[in-house]
Amino acid sequence: MKLSNGVEWAAHCCVVLSQATRPVPAARLAEFHGVSPTYLAKHLQALTRAGITSSVEGPVGGYALTREPGAISLGDVVAAIDGDQPAFRCTEIRQRGPLAASPTACATPCPIAAAMAVAEAAYRDALGTVTIADLAADVERGKDGALARLRTWLADGDATAVPTPRRARR
Amino acid sequence: MKLSNGVEWAAHCCVVLSQATRPVPAARLAEFHGVSPTYLAKHLQALTRAGITSSVEGPVGGYALTREPGAISLGDVVAAIDGDQPAFRCTEIRQRGPLAASPTACATPCPIAAAMAVAEAAYRDALGTVTIADLAADVERGKDGALARLRTWLADGDATAVPTPRRARR
User: Fold this and answer.
1) Which residues of chain A make contact with B34, given a CB cutoff of 8 A?
2) For A23-67, how does the pLDDT look when each residue is reduced to its tens digit (9 = 90+)?
3) Beta bridge pairs of residue B58
4) Cβ–Cβ contact A60 with B under 8 A
5) Which of B90, B98, B144 has its CB closest to that of A31?
6) Confidence class of residue A168 from pLDDT cuts 50, 70 and 90?
7) What is the residue-wise DSSP string for chain A?
8) Is the pLDDT of residue A164 over 80?
9) % helix / strand / coil in chain B, to the nearest 5?
10) In this complex, do A112 and B15 lie within 8 Å of one another by their Cβ atoms?
């Protein structure tokens, strides 16, 4: 079982966007992360499809969070990139074979599926309690000034932005 | 993110084996589950590699659990089939780009990786508390007599077993 690599990229982008005072162009997000804009684009588009980011058109356009960083959980980001399907998908094995249970006898979930669902709920609950604001606060506590430098870097980009129209990505 | 289908087959096989009084041939396990022996074989072999089952050679050979059903957790079965690698694998994105953190500044995990690890630990902990004995007890509580019928079916197989040598699978 492996999460898509996009989860890591998307979560980092959200933390960066939480420090921006205006939309951040996709190219600038890609530059900050040292990755190609085309690679990052699909993850930014997935965040936008999930309603976590929006893309703003125009010369000062780019990506922005749609709500407060404290209202976006890490679970929201995982679901945006990797979907919200359960990892375990019961195929009703108990309804197979010579002693197959009847569908009516299977009104309640198979105990195996039920136990897997409890574990997945614990996972989702844990991810749901961590917000982008929490993650940014953790970085701030790192004492290496990473967030302050990020904010300066973002502001420098704002100051030097060339005001040419830019097609918004969604 | 999706678990291998093998997890479901392997967990069902373990519950069946928990009700057997002697090794169950792979062909009989496949018959019980209404699936081809070749398909089931790879999951049984994975359980054996993980030390959850053993295969016994000879005319009354087959698969058996290596320890009490109460000492085999659903987490053990998931790890046997799907491995025990974390689902989230940090690639140290914070060490990329123009403001890259130095490796020495990254002695502690990235907050994103740390939060993902906490969630995965919650998932594993939940799976670790459910044993094959618990799952069998849950089936027993189903009141449709499924486990009693299974035990009778397994005993019938023992009585009619043809004593021809059978190559053990591992």
Assistant:
1) 96-98, 100
2) 999 999 999 999 999 999 999 999 999 999 999 988 888 999 999
3) none
4) no
5) B98
6) very low
7) ----THHHHHHHHHHHHTT-SS-B-HHHHHHHHTS-HHHHHHHHHHHHHTTSEEEE-STT-EEEESS-GGG-BHHHHHHHHH-S--SS----GGGSSTTPPPGGGGSSPPHHHHHHHHHHHHHHHHHHT-BHHHHHHHHHHTSS-HHHHHHHHHHHHHHH------PPP-
8) no
9) 55, 5, 40
10) yes
Average pLDDT over residues B85-102: 95
Q: Pick A88's closest partner by Cβ from B7, B91, B120.
A: B7
When pLDDT is cut at 50, 70 and 90, the band that residue B140 belongs to is very high
- Which contiguous run of DSSP H or E holds residue B54? strand B53-56
Closest to A80 (Cα-Cα) out of A49, A38, A113, A42:
A49
pTM across the whole model: 0.90
Side-chain-facing half-sphere of A133: CA atoms under 13 Å: 7
Q: Which residues on B lie below 8 Å from A3 (Cβ)?
A: 1, 87-89, 116
The verdict on A8 touching B (C-beta cutoff 8 Å) is: yes
Assigned token pair, B157: 């197989």
Residue with tokens 């960066």: A16
Query: How much is the average pLDDT of A143-164?
Result: 80
| Dihedral (CA of B158, B163, B164, B168) sign | positive
**A152 alpha carbon, distance to own chain's centre:** 24
Q: Are B101 and B93 in contact (CB under 8 A)?
A: no
Put simply, the answer to whether A120 touches B123 (Cβ < 8 Å) is: yes
Distance between start and end Cα atoms, chain A: 29
Kindly provide the ipTM of the predicted complex, given to two decimals.
Answer: 0.91
Q: Among A24-33, A126-135, B57-66, B111-120, name the one with the lowest average pLDDT.
A: B57-66
Share the mean pLDDT of chain A.
Answer: 92
